[in-house]
Design a protein that fits this description.
The radius of gyration is 20 Å and the shape is globular. The protein contains 11 helices and 2 strands, in the order ααααααααααββα. The mean pLDDT is 86. Strand 1 and strand 2 form a beta hairpin. It has a two-stranded antiparallel ribbon with strand order 1-2. It starts with a helix and ends in a 5-residue tail after the last helix. The protein is mainly alpha-helical and 265 residues long. Keywords: Membrane, Transmembrane, Transmembrane helix.
């Protein structure tokens, strides 16, 4: 397993698409820092407040990272490396587990990069423009940031295992990318279209989509012109249980399917 993880890490570092997305996040973070900061003259109510502003834009991550996960999930079939890995003695369980662990690693890297570069640029611009840095509500905002970052990791992990399952089922990158985009945009459209539908069933189903939960903990979910946020034990349990259930179900299906199907790279 360790050697396989090292090989995957080496592949990711050398992958042109990974480098391109990393550069895109770097540029996007810097641009967002100056765009968001410029709208409020780089006001800093407390050191955590700039990140609070960014959490409302973190939905952007869910359109980019799952797409790369799709390419990463199918590269073994596209390049034929999956046969070599399994022939070297690596078990199928270890292959899937290693893939998922590698995905979690670059999710962490991109989250740190996205939020970290933004924060450094924002605070540097605030200091350069002479903005005062206050301390009002620091504890509350810090807890909010920790919660949102943790939930972003959890929900990106849920999307990742869902896309990993799709990639392992379809195997071909082009077809898997199409399926991935359908999953991402389908969830997004279903969440938005059905949240104010006349049907009670559709409204209930919309409330349990990944996109709905992401928008809730990011502070951008609005129903009937009313902002809906996480409040109460029920909503907290929902926001935690939904992605965990998806992770368990999708990983179980992936292990079972991959363990029984022949490999045709």
């Amino acid at each position: 397993m360790r050697n396989f993880l090292k090989a995957q890490a080496y592949f990711i570092k050398k992958d042109t698409m990974f480098r391109g997305i990393s550069l895109m996040f770097l540029v996007a973070s810097a641009v967002l820092a100056f765009w968001v900061g410029g709208k409020n003259n780089f006001e800093v109510i407390n050191p955590a407040q700039p990140l609070i502003l960014l959490t409302q834009l973190s939905l952007f991550l869910y359109f980019v990272i799952p797409t790369y996960v799709c390419f990463f999930a199918t590269e073994g079939y596209e390049y034929g490396s999956i046969k070599l890995v399994l022939a070297s003695g690596q078990s199928r369980f270890a292959y899937i587990t290693g893939k998922y662990i590698s995905v979690l690693n670059f999710i962490f890297v991109w989250l740190i990069q996205f939020f970290g570069v933004y924060y450094v640029c924002y605070m540097a611009a605030a200091l350069f423009t002479g903005s005062a840095i206050g301390n009002d509500g620091l504890k509350t905002d810090m807890l909010q940031i920790i919660r949102v970052l943790g939930l972003n990791v959890l929900y990106l992990s849920a999307y990742a295992v869902l896309i990993l399952m799709v990639g392992i089922f379809i195997r071909r990158t082009a077809s898997a990318v199409v399926a991935t985009l359908l999953v991402i945009f389908g969830d997004f459209i279903f969440s938005g279209y059905c949240r104010e539908a006349s049907s009670l069933l559709l409204r209930e189903l919309s409330g349990y989509t990944l996109t709905t939960q992401i928008m809730k903990f990011s502070g951008v979910y609005v129903v009937n012109s009313q902002q809906v946020v996480l409040s109460g034990m029920k909503s907290v349990v929902e926001v935690l249980v939904i992605p965990l259930v998806i992770i368990v179900i999708c990983m179980s299906i992936t292990y079972f399917s991959f363990g029984r199907r022949d490999i045709h790279a």
